[in-house]
Structures
1.
Amino acid sequence: MLRWLRDFVLPTAACQDAEQPTRYETLFQALDRNGDGVVDIGELQEGLRNLGIPLGQDAEEKIFTTGDVNKDGKLDFEEFMKYLKDHEKKMKLAFKSLDKNNDALMLMGQ
Ligand SMILES: [Ca+2]
Ligand SMILES: [Ca+2]
């Protein structure tokens, strides 16, 4: 059983960038305040404010219109991750300039 598990898990983990899902997941969980697995616009705005990233109403709505692929008004983890991947450079800069205790830098893989 253990060997099966190891054979199954290890090659998969070795093949992908193991860092990325973790930090995206951490950020997603930080934004998903009520823990229902999706982030709505209210949670995004509140979450970004709490993280000290004042993107402003327009930018936050843009994240939604761009990121919400299936147009259900919520960002699930896949949509969120895809958006971050596409916009990571910009997000990284936002984090970098506002990060005070380096938590976010760790999140963004710095
Ligand atoms: Ca939620
Ligand atoms: Ca969606």
2.
Amino acid sequence: MKAVSAAGDAEAVSGPAIDVRGLRKSFGTLEVLAGIDFSVARGEVVCVIGPSGSGKSTLLRCVNLLEEPTSGTVTVAGTEVTDPDVDIDKVRRRIGMVFQSFNLFPHLTVLENLTLPQRRVLGRDRAEAAGIARERLARVGLTDKESAYPAQLSGGQQQRVAIARALAMDPELMLFDEPTSALDPELVGDVLAVMRSLADEGMTMLVVTHEMSFAREVADRVVFMDGGVIVEEGAPEQVIGAPRHARTRSFLARLLTPATADLTEAAEAADGAGKRSGPV
Ligand SMILES: Nc1ncnc2c1ncn2[C@@H]1O[C@H](COP(=O)(O)OP(=O)(O)O)[C@@H](O)[C@H]1O
Ligand SMILES: [Mg+2]
């Protein structure tokens, strides 16, 4: 590991939470990330949007090295995770990750799902882990569910347990990969409310989502990805409200009103055809 000077320490404390430079990732001949540069400041909430297959999940997975980048650097809170000598387990401990699928242990109660990783990874004793687990369950509004098994909970409740489990590890930043995409529509709101409260408390968050109203209201910045590159990024009211690029506009049009977008395109095409042929 590199020796870190006192000045380096200070920089590590004040620098960005996530810094990505020239990131490329290929699977065989398929280039999924084609040169990504971006950073997330401490306390910032960044939402990543973009069509399926654009590389959003791969980007998130490169941040905590669930995928190994083909080239480029990723730095998390001052530690370069792409440094071959890095203690990646130590870095991962600082990063909470919440996936579309909740990945709870089905044979453990909610409380046990929260205490097990604290005891295994952080070495906390049973009583301390349980105390922290109960505090985090209260934060996600599930105090009364600690003895339930995951199968006895709704999808939204399971996802809130998964968020509480990540919070019990005292992460410095949280990565969310489409946390509400697997949920019935009526369960999405409670999960987004928990995420909003985390953002309000100052948690650093990188969130892949299709929930445009959440991105508009909660994100400090929105990043639009397509084809393995960042097409545009900026304030939510700009990227979502007044996108500069045609690719962003067509993605948003499809997302917000899938059926009408097609109709509008058809109408525009017909209109264009009409104009080209002129009045009859
Ligand atoms: N482990 C993998 N092996 C091969 N191809 C992969 C792998 N993971 C992702 N891909 C491909 O990379 C592309 C981007 O995937 P992904 O990052 O999941 O996109 P998104 O999250 O934006 O939908 C897709 O074409 C996907 O099939
Ligand atoms: Mg994905």
3.
Amino acid sequence: MTDTPPAVPGPEPAPDAVRDPVPDPVRGAAAPPPGCPAHDPDGATGEDAAPDRLVNLFAPGSVADPMATYEKLREAHGPVAPVLLADDLPAWLVLGYRENLEVARTPARFTRDSRVWTLFKEDRVPPTSPLLPLTEWKPVCRFFDGEEHRRVRSAINDSIARLNRRGIRRHVNRYAGRLIDGFSGTGEADLVGEFVEHLPMLVMTQLIGLPDEDGPRLVDASREVMNGAATAVASNAYIVETLQSLVARKRAAPGHDLASWLIGHPEGLSNLEVVQHLRVILVITNETTTSLIASVLRMVLTDPRFRATLAGGHMTLLDAVEQVLWDEPPFLTLPGRWATGDTEVGGRRIKAGDLLLLGLAAGNADPAIRPDRSAPMLGNRSHLAFGGGAHECPGQDISRAIADTGIDTLLTRLPDLRMSVAEDELHWNKAWVTRHLAALPVEFTPVRAARTRTGPDTGAVPRAEASGGAARQARTPERPADGEPAAAPEPAVTGLWPAAKRRLLRR
Ligand code: HEM
């Protein structure tokens, strides 16, 4: 890869194809179009608006209700809108479905190589910017194009393809069972803190070849990295060290796991490349799959449209997963792509070196392809949740397997699971790129732990550890000798749920 990819200017748009006035997000805004929410004090950003009055995606109003913000931007600007980010740095937000695909699928015009960003070249991105973790160029596939990208992606794709689907589901079942054992006797839980936030990382550590005992510590470390906690740097160092020693061990004695397959791939990845890509995989998997599982669970437990459809017997758990990937994709926006030369998209003139954010959530809601957003998508997989083009997510089937097997296990173990707070009391831990439910309090009839064993291989996550707080008094009865799910007390299964769940799980 070169530092400055060849500039390939796009076709100069016909003058009437370009919306006027055209704010130039990098060099300052032109006069606002009438009714533009970016300039409306009551708009999405209100008094939080940036000095030049463009919508700031980091403003509390935008973060609190990103979908409403995207719709106001779409109404005012069409499929591509000028926005501001942290420190009032300008960018384009791609809102149209087709425009998102155009940007994602045309690397000659829109590169992943962030080193061409005008704001980097002009030294306008502060060293403390929250944009840096996602935009600062690193030698990993996310920032590669062309042959360099093809080489690493073929190693990643081939290694992921070797994973045995049944093996993935077995790991998910095992870890989901252990997590459920941590709270099943109590009759109440926060499913996000005690189940959802742990499952993806525990499963991924197995798939990449780490021992059981590394799982819980990596869950905490990766959460701290994502939250920007005071210990984020140390946690990141811990993740890298853990992966470095894994790669050294697997190079000496390969096993049946992602680390060994990446190391042994004919493309000849160096140890550093393997470590860096395993890290990308762990961090991406954890946040995104956590978000996906939490949203699907909320939908299963609360959405009347979904439950009504269930009663009609049409929607499966897999349908619910795809519906969430349409309506609440884990990555709301994705930074990004950078224009390799002056070009045009969605009627906007884009300058060489401008940053474009893929608006995955906005694109999924584009009325041009989804005039009725309330219509169920029934398993349709053409959403943008996994991106598009050469960088489209290679792990999508893994995350689907973790989500639907994990939820299947949960509903089977706790069949009368129900929310213990009103839906409007739920809130999200908000971020401009990804977000997930902060908590999902539920109640159910207590059941005995089914799988918890003593000894070194239990891997069971004690409640205090899982929730990060003090353990509540478990009302778990004695474990039955045969280790099977406890027969008593049987959950009181009432109402729609048992029949609905049977249909939900039908494939
Ligand atoms: C619900 C879960 C997930 C979501 C929503 C998701 C979404 C995405 C998106 C939007 C991208 C960027 C695509 C682009 O730039 O056009 C991406 C890239 C990537 N994802 Fe995922 N992902 C998920 C799970 C996973 C899992 C489980 C793995 C690993 C096994 C994984 C590995 C990767 C990698 C390595 C990349 C970089 C690919 C590249 O740049 O070529 N993801 N993912």
